[in-house]
Structure formats: structure tokens, C-alpha cells
Design brief:
This protein is an alpha+beta fold. The protein is built from nine helices and 16 strands. The strands form four sheets. The protein has an eight-stranded antiparallel beta sheet. Helix 3 runs parallel beside helix 7 and helix 7 crosses helix 8.
Length: about 350
């Protein structure tokens, strides 16, 4: 799962200095590369050292299941296969990600849609060599097989533990869990640390974050949210959030876009109309109980826009998610919207 496949980007700054080993075992840092991006795990006052090899085995298993860039991965093979498939789903990784994706697809009325992959491909959002914009006929043709609802273009059934039946009703149908996979991966690693009885940790993959307990200084973890500016060489923090036992993700189009024929195109595709979004929402930050949820809803809100996202949040308090939106008003001045809970996170001092 390479970060280049992300429809939206995530940008966070971890506000504490990181060294591999600190005196008196105050923290352990594990870092490296995965899914086309970097990852960082910080254990605060760990009771035991966590082996990096074990973490990377988890990352490899996830890559072999959900990566569209790994030709040996399960999802790659499913996308290439035009018929029926019965496959072994190691550790229920595909099943769990698929089930979560279906739930969010339904809740958002298709704003979050893993079957958007053919649209991302035709727009050439991640190919510098693609200089031809798709025409309306090509987009309309693709929209005829973009819908993640079961039994329309595909069928899915869990046969037994770790065994899945999958059928492509339309051979052109392809799925891409990129907008949830990194958050899901963070959750898998968090579950592993929980099983080891690790009480305080920070996990970040490509900007998707989950934190538990306290940081090495004994306070809640502090996460910075970027100010939405296009300059890649200059980053400014817009908010600092004090958080514990939560996940956080941000999606935005202010740095992820490309320009063709003098027009700017966002990297977030609206799966309902087949075109990049054009509304005034610049970034969406979501806090949730798990990172897959935060990741997916951050993307969904970028598709919905400000008004629809606010309505959604008001209508779904049961999800227990908080959000922070940065957008431009009619005078191109930055404004923001914070849910009540999000506002409390930003006002905490420790």
C-alpha cells in the first residue's frame, strides 16, 4: 500500500524529540519505511523492549494482503482476476478491512468508496507522465461500474475462518483500500502492543496516528495540525491537540494537487460524479476511537464538503468522532469549524 495511492494527504508533526534509546529506558523508538511512506512507533516507559522484526512482520503481512502496488498481494490478484476467487485470508486482514469499509461506505452514502480506483487511475493523479485529461464520456463509462455496494458489481462471502469467496460481476470493477489501509495498519500494530501489555505508545504511519497513555514527559501526547498552505518547504502549525487513547487523521488537498492546462485538480475524487472535488474545504481532521475510522472519515469529509460533513456529524453522535475543518470563505479567507469535543482537545494544557 504505497502512500502515492492516497487520495488525500495527512500531515502531522510529533512534538517531542526522538532518539533510539533514552537513559533509564524512558522510551523506545522504532521507525522505518512501509507502504511507500515512513512509520514511527514511540513507547513511553515500556516494561519491555518490542522487537522491530515483529513489527515489520505485521507490516509485511498487511502489504501482502492490501497493497495495490505489490503484484503478489491478495487485493492485486483479486483486481486482476476476472472471475470467481476463493482465497485464504491470513489473520482476517482482508475480511476486517472489507467489513469496516462496507460500514463506512453505507454510513457516508458512498462518499467513502473503495471502488473509486479506476477513476483515480484514469485521472492520472499519481502519474507525472499522464498529460491528457479524461473526457466526460470516459468518466461516465467508468461510473457505470463504480459502486462498492455488494451484489451490484461484486459479491463477497466469508466461507469459514480465514476463507473468503469473492466474485467480480463486472470484470472492470476494482477495489482500493488506500483511504483506510494506513489507519487500519496503525490499529493492527496498536492491537499487537496491547497484547504485550504496553500501556503508553504513539504509532504513526504516513501521518495516521494512534496514541495511548502518556508521553515520555508524563503528559498527554501532543499532535500538531498543519496550517493549510501550498508551500511544501514551509510548514506552520495551525493547532496543537493534547490527546490520549484516541486516533487522529487528517486529509487535505492544499498540497496534493496537480495542474494541467493551467487548472488545478485536487487529489480527492468524488466517486459519485467521477471528478476531483472543487469545494472550499482545505483539510479535515478527525479524532476517533480507532485509526481506520479516523482515516476513512477524513477522506469522506473531503468528498462531502463542509456543510454536508457538519450535518453528518450532528446526525451521527453514536460514532463518537470529533472533527476540525479548515476552509475558505467567499473572500478566500481561512475559516475553521470545530466540534465541541475537538475544541476541548485543542484547549487542554497537559
Amino acid at each position: 500500500m504505497q502512500n502515492l495511492l492516497r487520495i488525500s494527504i495527512v500531515t502531522f508533526f510529533f512534538l517531542f524529540g526522538c532518539s533510539e534509546i533514552k537513559k533509564e529506558n524512558k522510551k523506545q523508538v522504532i521507525s522505518g519505511y512501509t507502504q511507500g511512506t515512513t512509520y514511527t512507533i514511540i513507547l513511553s516507559n515500556p516494561i519491555k523492549k518490542v522487537p522491530k522484526k515483529a513489527v515489520e512482520e505485521l507490516l509485511i503481512n498487511l502489504d501482502n494482503s492490501l497493497s495495490n502496488y505489490n503484484s503478489n498481494s491478495l487485493i492485486y490478484k483479486l483486481n486482476q482476476n476476472n472471475g470467481d476467487s476463493v482465497f485464504y485470508d491470513k489473520n482476517d486482514l482482508f475480511k476486517t478491512c472489507y467489513t469496516k469499509s462496507q460500514q463506512i461506505f453505507k454510513l457516508t452514502n458512498g462518499a467513502f468508496d473503495p471502488s473509486v480506483h479506476p477513476l483515480v487511475d484514469i485521472w492520472g493523479l499519481f502519474s507525472k507522465s499522464n498529460s491528457i485529461l479524461p473526457d466526460s464520456l470516459a468518466i461516465d463509462s467508468i461510473l457505470n461500474f463504480v459502486n462498492f455496494k455488494p451484489n451490484i458489481f461484486h459479491r463477497y462471502k466469508s466461507i469459514s475462518k480465514n476463507k473468503i469467496f469473492y466474485k467480480k460481476i463486472d470484470k472492470r470493477f476494482k477495489i482500493d483500500f488506500n483511504a483506510i489501509a494506513q489507519g487500519f495498519t496503525v490499529d493492527i500494530i496498536a492491537n499487537y502492543l496491547d497484547q504485550l501489555n504496553i500501556k503508553n505508545y504513539y504509532i504513526e504511519i504516513g501521518g495516521e496516528i494512534i496514541v495511548k497513555g502518556k508521553n515520555p514527559e508524563g503528559n498527554k501526547w501532543k499532535i500538531g495540525i498543519d496550517k493549510p498552505i501550498e508551500n511544501l518547504n514551509k510548514r506552520e502549525l495551525n493547532k496543537i491537540i493534547s490527546i490520549s487513547n484516541k486516533a487522529i487523521a487528517t486529509s487535505g488537498n492544499y498540497r496534493k494537487f496537480y495542474v494541467k492546462n493551467g487548472k488545478k485538480y485536487a487529489h480527492t475524487i468524488n466517486p459519485k460524479i467521477g471528478y476531483p472535488v472543487t469545494h472550499n474545504l482545505l483539510s479535515a481532521t478527525v479524532i476517533a476511537d480507532n485509526c481506520a475510522l479516523a482515516d476513512a472519515f477524513a477522506t469522506a469529509f473531503m468528498v462531502m464538503g463542509v456543510s454536508k460533513s457538519i450535518d453528518f456529524l450532528e446526525n451521527h453522535p453514536e460514532l463518537n468522532i470529533e472533527a476540525y475543518f479548515i476552509f475558505e470563505n467567499k473572500e478566500n479567507i481561512l475559516e475553521e469549524y470545530l466540534t465541541k469535543g475537538m475544541n476541548e482537545f485543542t484547549n487542554q494544557t497537559n
